[in-house]
Amino acid sequence: MVVQNEMDKLNLAVKNIKLGEVVFENELSEEQKTTIDKALSPLGFELIDDKKSRIIEKIKNTIIQLVHHQDSGLRNNLSEVLSNELHHDYNYLSNLFSEIEGTTIEKYFISQKIERVKELLVYDQLSLSEIAFQLNYSSVAYLSNQFKKVTGLTPSYFKQIKENKRKPLDQL
Q: Domain HTH araC/xylS-type, which positions (predicted)?
């Protein structure tokens, strides 16, 4: 909505806006691109105009969408999902991502999954086995090992630390 409002203020015809991407009705001039960049920068957005950077952003947005917003999406093979979504061979996507980001798609995917696990642990609405199932881990043990490898903490210890730092609402 924020991006849509800015595009409306600039009187730019937009075909479609979705996470990380704006499709315009007409080709933009360099002056319009500069204006958009100036309008979006203070809001925490940046204009990405080169093809490789757009592909990287699409990879990241697809992974974020899968991990944080679509429980069923994690049941599919990540390489197939990315290839289908971005219409490129996975090897090309993987090599490009590693070249630009300095890490692999798999590591980025794991880091997103671990962030989601942290979030779900803090919410305290699901058991660890329910979290493992939701994020398509083969077992709680595998989730725990991966969590500890990434964070240095076990999931239960992480949860304990976060609970000790949280204040009851009546003490705020």
A: 80-161
CB 135 within 8 A of CB 116: yes
What are 103's two structure tokens?
């890490």
CA–CA dist 166, 172 (Å, integer): 10
Render pLDDT for 74-92 as a digit per residue (tens, 0 to 9). Answer: 667 899 999 999 999 999 9
The answer for residues whose C-beta is within 8 angstroms of residue 25's C-beta and 6 or more apart is 13, 14, 15
Q: For residue 164, what pLDDT is reported?
A: 61
Residues 26 and 13 sit within 8 Å (Cβ to Cβ): yes
Q: Pick from 16, 28, 53, 51: which is nearest to 36 by CA?
A: 28
Q: Domain 52-165 belongs to what topology?
A: Arc Repressor Mutant, subunit A (1.10.10)
Q: Give pLDDT tens digits for 89-144.
A: 999 999 999 988 999 999 999 999 999 999 999 888 889 999 999 898 999 999 99
What is the residue extent of each domain of the chain? 2-49, 52-165
